[in-house]
């Protein structure tokens, strides 16, 4: 997303199949604009992520609610808007649902949490700039 922002494209946003209303709104917004538009979509891969098909929606929601995959928009590369205030759940909530992360140690999960918290804080600061 930072690359899209750096190129100052008219519209970039993250979307998730776990939040269909947000996804629909952003697709409509992107379609109404002229110029380059970019949508980064999180869609769980049941085979690759080693999750049962019935958990796919839960995993998509957990990615957002843990701030692993925050939902936001960037207008013209400078105006960041958070479109969902996450519950701030621990990243382990998301990681533990997937077989592909079973090998992670507590230390590694803690490091992922710290990096996720840092990135979330950075994103919040960018969104706050718009409102100041």
List the helices and strands and how they pair.
Elements (H helix, E strand, L loop, with lengths): L1 H5 L4 E6 L3 H13 L4 E6 L3 H4 L6 H10 L6 E4 L3 E4 L8 H5 L10 H25 L2
Write structural notes for this entry.
The protein is an alpha+beta fold. It is built from 6 helices and 4 strands. Strands 2-1-3-4 form a 4-stranded mixed β-sheet. The protein is globular, with a radius of gyration of 15 Å. The two termini are 22 Å apart. The model has no long low-confidence stretch (mean pLDDT 96).
Labels describing this entry:
alpha+beta, 6 helices, 4 strands, 47% helix, globular
Name the average pLDDT.
96
Please tell me how large the radius of gyration is: 15 Å
Q: Runs with pLDDT <50, length 5+?
A: none
What is the N-to-C succession of helices and strands? HEHEHHEEHH
Query: Can you give the helix content as a percent range?
Result: 40-55%
User: What is the distance, rounded to the nearest whole angstrom, between the alpha carbons of the first and last residues?
Assistant: 22 Å
Largest sheet: 4 strands, mixed
Strand order of the largest sheet: 2-1-3-4
Number of contiguous helices? 6
Estimate the strand proportion. 15-25%
- The shape, in one word, is globular
Number of strands: 4
Assembly annotation: single chain
| Secondary structure category | alpha+beta
């Amino acid at each position: 997303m930072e690359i899209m922002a750096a190129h100052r494209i008219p519209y970039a946003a993250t979307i998730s199949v776990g939040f269909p209303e947000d996804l629909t709104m952003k697709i409509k917004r992107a379609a109404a604009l002229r110029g380059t538009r970019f949508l980064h979509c999180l869609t769980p891969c049941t085979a690759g992520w080693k999750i049962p098909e019935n958990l796919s929606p839960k995993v998509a929601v957990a990615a957002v609610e843990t701030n692993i995959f925050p939902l936001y928009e960037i207008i013209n590369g400078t105006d960041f808007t958070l479109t969902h205030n996450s519950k701030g759940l621990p990243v382990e909530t998301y990681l533990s649902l997937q077989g592909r992360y079973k090998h992670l140690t507590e230390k590694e999960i803690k490091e992922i949490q710290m990096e996720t918290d840092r990135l979330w804080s950075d994103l919040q600061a960018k969104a706050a700039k718009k409102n100041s």
